[in-house]
TrEMBL record:
EC number of this enzyme: 5.1.3.2
Occurrences of domain NAD-dependent epimerase/dehydratase (ranges): 4-177
One MF annotation (Gene Ontology) recorded for this entry: oxidoreductase activity
Record Pfam families: Epimerase
Protein name in the entry: UDP-glucose 4-epimerase
InterPro entries: Epimerase_deHydtase, NAD(P)-bd_dom_sf
Family to which the UniProt record says this protein belongs: Belongs to the NAD(P)-dependent epimerase/dehydratase family.
Keywords carried by this UniProt record: Isomerase, NAD, Oxidoreductase
Enzyme class label: isomerase
Length: 261
């Protein structure tokens, strides 16, 4: 049985993956700085801060893959982003290199959020971050690339769209990622033979997707489609005001926007 490290296990996505894996299909090492509650027999808690390089080395020793969901998920102050999205990630990659562990990295659509809505792009399009948070995810993708090119650490960077139980606003017609598709995506990343370095869009099979996956070496085939909810959500404005409708990053792109057009 594979040993999987799940960081950010107390967070939104971490909690869902943990529940989806409650049948014990993997031996799970659960990491967070927050409490993790009661553990099942296939789970071990590793409470600790990923900025600590020694802790990361212990966490990854003997593991097959780390599913890295820990980090700051919003556009908070630069210091916090540097600490948790940059420094912690670097510690994790150093440990992954030491122990030859595959990394599945939670990047974000906010790495490309300044593309105009209705523009189709693929995973090779130039990055266009929409916030300092988005910049921190670009940095993470660059670290992943560096550690593959220089140290052979296999990485799949997931540009996650909108991970929600159900889509609830207009933008989600393009960006929704269902819980079931996320599980399928992460499991394909875990099971793929020699994926090397890759960027994958973490998005469901939405009719109105902006993001095209040109290369799909892991065999990701999403099933959910936000269009099933279109009647209810097409008239619900994207959070962040009218500017948020213009950019793929929605409210993150609209926030603090000062460009005169
Ligand atoms: N939820 C989404 O729709 C979405 C979209 C795009 C990208 N992402 C990315 O996916 C990842 C998971 O998202 P989420 O919504 O579950 O986030 P979340 O904020 O709910 O969970 C993140 C978890 O990471 C933990 N953490 C933060 N810094 C840590 C550190 N130094 N050491 C150990 N644990 C630490 C936090 O305690 C928290 O429980 C994030 O990196 C986020 O940027 C999420």
């Amino acid at each position: 049985m594979k040993t999987i490290v799940l960081t950010g296990a107390a967070g939104n996505i971490g909690k869902v993956l943990r529940e989806q894996w409650s049948d014990g299909r993997y031996q799970l090492r659960l990491n967070d700085i927050k409490p993790l509650g009661e553990l099942a027999t296939h789970e071990t808690a590793y409470i600790g801060d990923l900025r600590d390089a020694g802790f990361c080395t212990e966490l990854l020793k003997g593991a097959d893959t780390v599913v890295h969901m820990a980090g700051i998920g919003t556009d908070l102050e630069l210091d916090l982003l540097i600490e948790h999205n940059l420094k912690a990630l670097l510690s994790l990659y150093q440990a992954a290199s030491t122990h030859a562990v595959r990394v599945i990295y939670a990047s974000s659509n906010h790495a490309i959020g300044m593309y105009a809505s209705e523009t189709d792009i693929d995973e090779h399009a130039a990055v266009r971050p929409d916030s300092l948070y988005g910049v921190s995810k670009v940095w993470g993708e660059a670290i992943a690339r560096l550690y593959f090119d220089k140290h052979g650490v296999e990485s799949i960077c997931l540009r996650i769209g909108s991970f929600e139980t159900e889509p609830f606003e207009r933008r989600h017609l393009h960006t929704w990622l269902s819980h079931a598709d996320m599980q399928h995506l992460v499991e394909r990343c875990i099971e793929a033979l020699h994926p090397g370095f890759h960027i994958m869009y973490g998005v469901s099979a939405n009719t109105r997707n902006w993001w095209r996956q040109r290369d799909n070496p892991i065999g990701y085939h999403p099933q959910s489609n936000a269009e099933d909810f279109a009647e209810r959500i097409a008239s619900i404005p994207t959070r962040g005001g009218p500017l948020a409708e213009l950019f793929q990053g929605g409210g993150f792109a609209a926030s603090d926007y000062t460009k005169k057009t």
